[in-house]
Write a structure and sequence with these properties.
Chains A, B: Its cofactor is FAD. 2 copies of one chain form a homodimer. By secondary structure, chain A is of the alpha/beta class. Chain A has 16 helices and 19 strands. Chain A has 3 domains: 224 residues, FAD/NAD(P)-binding domain; 100 residues; 76 residues, no CATH class. Chain A has a 7-stranded mixed beta sheet with strand order 6-5-14-15-16-13-17. In chain A, strands 8-2-1-12-19-18 form a 6-stranded mixed beta sheet, with helices on both faces. In chain A, helix 10 packs antiparallel against helix 11. Chain A starts with a strand and ends in an 8-residue tail after the last helix. The mean pLDDT of chain A is 95. Strand 13 of chain A pairs antiparallel with strand 13 of chain B, so a sheet runs across the interface. Bound molecules: flavin-adenine dinucleotide (2 copies).
Chain lengths: 456, 456
């Protein structure tokens, strides 16, 4: 008889992990706080759409649902920057055929739940709030949100995929004698704003790009949805700085702010004032912790163990990669869970910390540097190097279009910073980089010092 | 009528803060988990003695009890290093008249409680465990540890001085929308070992020094007590490395370990095996968080807001400095608590983070570098500079013998590192530093770039 496995949280990571385990014949029970989104409609609370990139797709493939999801996904081949005058510039993410994909959080979650639900050895229980786990006994306590019913569930193993404010993690924190934990909030909040389709049902902006309004200390972005709309997201300081959310109170203040910084977006958001006032301002948290497991009985995954800020579009992708890696480890360790969980806990935490750092660093890139000519020049030169030496992969590509461990990508990123610090100070580099023997010399010398990358 | 103030936790910081507030005429209620240590005897659970240095003494002076405490304190004028052959070397902390003082945790705590208890406007309640606070209403819930009685206490303001595992902090974490928090454990534990007086009642080692057995990856230290004994503390990895606590199980393993690394200490610890087995192995935690307050209603202080590892001997000292600074702010803001608490929260957190960093860094210094000739040379040259230019204060002196904000000391420490990196690579520096014009030139140039220190 296969292990009885309990999954707490049927968000993106929990429902994918449920599919992969059910496929292998484990007895899987999934408890989720919300009601069944297939009946109740999906109530997210968080971003309406997300960018899926290679790490996510690999996991989709493993679950056998890549094609289904791809049909509902919109490729974004680069960033489209909007300056204050409404002028647009485009910056490709990689090659012609490389893209990140805008997917609907609700659509994706429902699809995963639907597929998981086809397995007889898997059962969903909706509306149950996990109150905590008894780690050493691999049992969990639940309360039904409507009836108040209390329930204790025993299992051989528990996976906590209950998100950034994980109840399973809270229990680990108490059960483990030395649990390292940090939660850190940005001084910035975000607010979503709806950009409906045009009257003839088309996208109001180029749908094959991620739109950015970079404004130095803050920014707005927009990702396309399949119904022709976009979801815009404003990232802005909570307080103190000008501008900040706490300085935007009256209609006049809000309109003046948009007129100064996002004039070209005003006609795109018909209910701007109403949405600005009624949509919540949400916070941005980074969670780091270790260890992630209690013996071979409890493991936390996804946002529950490593929530990150959204600026690299890697939160879901890294959670999905958790599933891929664990699934690979099941094969490598022939189903020995003590070994699987130990190996995952041992190798994965540094990668989670690395993508947390990269995501924080990318906020500055997106809100500020993408509008900086030096930054654009670096991108161009990097793309050129990549053409000559395919082994040279720009940092963004390593994170987004490869499966190189995040910690190696971060290290590589630091090394690339050093390379471009040398190159970008060369005289007249803006104009003469193409056939500049000095650029070539610096680059070749740098390449000689680089280790061969682990995977690609 | 003066504010009603509730203090949660009558440890070192809470009982000192109670004295300072009672002195000013506030209505103070102090709730403490343990029973009255004056009746029950002091049950610490943590280090038996502590090093008090200038920041602590300043607070004692403010409370009017410096002389009383000093009578029970043993000056330690430097480090005495024990090598594996039992050879001793001495390293002064500063001038002849500078010392840190070994004080008894229990004695000091009882003294503070006794003094606080003399005020009619102050009342202690022992045996009450705080279960949490309702921050926005400045009220706290308690449970009596023997009777189980539940009690809710209302106040105008609550100070949480309930230590590293603070219940008040846990409530702030829930009440504040964006509470940044980190708890981080060393992979090292510590174990106390008793070194009794000699048969004629004398100290078995020089009492006017802090003894260190530096062994690279681990160490033992010992501080004197007034009864002629010493308290030794072994700091060692929990597991994995050799040696580590989890490798020391049998009597033979323990004895072999001591024979190899601490041979000269074996005759000093008559009950070595018994103590090693029966005394707990305790963990070492660093806590950082922000903010420290809920409006002007709740403030956490001491270990509750900034627990640090003990390697700089500044945990209690920094908590006592919290009291000094707040007491100064009461004067500066004429008792306006909203301003006092905001000013403290605004300026003090960076200093707490700095001493946390310094304490972590000092572990490596104590267990490893104090045995390194280059390090000793640096100390000597620094002392020499300090004689010529009294404005040049070695980092250790800034932390221990000054009231310079910790964050400035940390910065100064980094700058001094850079200075000595230049000096210590000079040819023949071991022998020729005294009248070396190059050393002088480097030093003078460096001094020109230094800011004038804030306070001293
Ligand atoms: C603004 C924003 C934009 C983002 N954009 C991207 C992007 O473009 N690309 C990307 O890869 N990532 C993105 N992310 C990150 C992504 O949303 C998360 O990484 C991802 O949702 C994590 O999935 P999860 O399943 O671990 O957690 P969640 O999606 O949070 O799911 C947790 C589930 O557990 C349930 N639950 C919670 N508590 C309990 C309980 N006590 N008992 C039972 N169930 C419980 C919840 O109801 C939920 O269903 C973004 C995040 C934000 C905030
Ligand atoms: C091994 C070791 C050596 C050290 N050496 C030094 C040194 O040499 N010099 C130095 O300056 N510092 C040293 N320290 C640090 C020092 O011990 C602490 O910084 C200091 O004790 C902090 O004082 P506090 O009052 O904030 O917390 P604590 O001393 O921990 O006091 C907290 C009080 O609150 C009570 N309490 C806890 N929870 C509750 C609750 N829920 N309800 C009610 N009451 C509660 C506790 O019983 C206790 O009395 C050392 C620490 C360790 C571990």
């Amino acid at each position: 008889m296969k292990d009885r496995i309990l999954i707490v949280g049927a968000g993106l990571v929990g429902s994918l992990w449920a599919v992969l385990l059910a496929k292998r014949g484990y007895q899987v029970e999934v408890f989720e706080l919300r009601n069944d989104p297939r009946k109740a409609g999906f109530k997210g609370g968080r971003s309406i759409n997300l960018a899926m990139s290679d790490r996510g797709w690999k996991a989709m493939e493993r679950a056998g649902i890549k094609d289904t999801i791809r049909q509902q996904a919109i490729p974004m081949r680069g960033r489209k920057m909007h300056d204050t005058a409404g002028q647009l510039t485009f910056q490709p993410y990689g090659d012609q055929d490389q893209a990140i994909y805008s997917v609907s959080r609700g659509g994706l979650n429902i699809e995963l739940i639907d597929i998981a639900d086809q397995y007889d050895n898997l059962k969903f229980h909706f509306g149950y709030k996990c109150l905590g786990v008894v780690a050493e006994e691999a049992k969990a306590h639940f309360e039904h949100r409507d009836t108040g019913e209390h329930l204790t569930v025993n299992a051989d193993r528990i996976f906590g995929t209950d998100g950034a404010f994980s109840a399973v993690r809270r229990s680990l924190m108490k059960a483990l004698p030395r649990f390292n934990y940090s939660q850190s909030f940005l001084d910035y909040g975000y607010k979503e704003l709806h950009i409906p389709p045009t009257t003839d049902g088309k996208h109001a902006l180029d749908p094959n790009a991620l739109h950015i309004w970079p404004r130095g200390q803050f920014m707005m972005i927009a990702l396309p949805n399949v119904d022709g709309s976009f979801t815009g997201t404003l990232f802005l300081a909570y307080e103190g700085q000008t501008p900040a959310f706490d300085q935007l109170n009256t209609d006049e203040e809000i309109m003046a702010f948009f007129q100064t910084y996002f004039a070209d977006a005003i006609p795109l958001i018909p209910n701007l004032l109403e949405e600005f006032r009624e949509n919540p301002t949400s916070s941005l948290i980074t969670i780091r912790c270790s260890p992630w497991r209690y013996e071979d009985k409890v493991l936390i995954m996804g946002d529950a163990s490593h929530a990150i800020v959204p600026f690299y579009g890697q939160g879901m992708n890294s959670g999905f990669e958790d599933c891929t890696l664990l699934d690979e480890l099941i094969d490598a360790h022939d189903g020995n869970w003590a070994e699987i969980i130990e190996a995952f806990n041992h190798s994965r935490i540094k990668d989670a910390n690395a993508i947390a750092d990269l995501a924080l660093r990318n906020f500055i890139e997106m809100r500020d540097k993408v509008a900086d000519p030096k930054f654009l020049l670096r991108k161009e030169i990097a793309a050129h190097f990549n053409k000559i030496y395919p082994e040279f992969l720009p940092l963004y590509s390593q994170v987004t279009f490869s499966h190189i461990p995040y910690s190696e990508a971060l290290e590589e990123g630091h090394a690339q910073d050093a390379l471009f610090e040398e190159i970008l100070v060369l005289d007249g580099i803006e104009h003469n980089w193409k056939d500049n023997p000095e650029v070539d010399r610096i680059f070749r010398k740098w390449m000689q010092g680089r280790p061969v990358l682990a995977t690609s």
